[in-house]
Amino acid sequence: MGSQEHGQVQRWQDRWWAVGLLVLVVWVGIRLAFDGWSGWPGILVGGLLYAGFMTWFVMRRRRRDARAVGTDAARVPELERRIAKNGELPADPAEQAAMIRLIRRREEKLRRNRWWAFPLLALIFFGTPVFWFAAGNVGAGLWGLAFGAAFLGWMVWFNRRFVRRMAAMRQRIEGVGTEGVRVEGAHVEGARIEGVEGGGGRSVGGAEGVAHGAR
Fold first, then answer.
1. Which residues of 35-61 are buried (b: 16+ CB within 10 A; e: fewer)?
2. Which of 72, 110, 167, 188, by CA, is between 20 and 30 Å from 205?
3. 75 and 6 in contact (C-beta within 8 Å)?
4. What local confidence, expressed as pLDDT, does residue 137 receive?
5. Are 68 and 105 in contact (CB under 8 A)?
6. What is the per-residue burial (b if ≥16 Cβ within 10 Å, else e) of 162-197?
């Protein structure tokens, strides 16, 4: 179920080099804002290493998700976007099934990781400024606290919204699937009922005809 099979072209933002470039720009920008331009060579080298690691991690997660839900790795970002926006349902029933499996996979991971992920992020974002304060860099410490509070607030808001939209998308797809099954079942049951009634009617009619003829 590749992107080309569905007539869709992968967005450039979803390609591995775009992911790495975005991580590099964000990393270098944040480090330069905190440390200044004096240490830009080390910041750039560290950014390249971090961007390489994050690109490998994101691509690896996509491949695992694709194998788990039965789609192509290039389709995973598009499915995630549709889930996050509660957007248009895929026209292909097989892709709808893949989206349902992806939603359930995300929901399971959120339930499993919720107890440690946010506390760890809070420790990182609020613990790092403590070292800056201890080193006498009050400005960097204040910037770190502000950034950590804003980022964690955004993470909580995004996580809650994503959970709601996953549930809404799953209900929409399952509703469409259930409705289709009901309709098909109704046709099947109706055909059986009509066949039985028709056969019964013909038998009864034949019996009545014999009876009338006998009279």
1. eeeeeeeebeeebeebbeebbeebeee
2. 188
3. yes
4. 82
5. yes
6. beebbeebbeebeeeeeeeeeeeeeeeeeeeeeeee
- What is the pLDDT, as a whole number, of residue 9? 63
Please state, in angstroms and rounded to a whole number, the distance separating the CA atoms of residues 59 and 166: 22
| Helix-then-strand count for the chain, H and E | 5, 0
The helix (run of H) or strand (run of E) holding residue 186 is: helix 138-214
Q: What pTM value is reported for the model? A: 0.68
Write out pLDDT tens, residues 111-130: 898 889 889 989 988 888 88
Q: How far is CA 172 from the centre of its chain?
A: 15
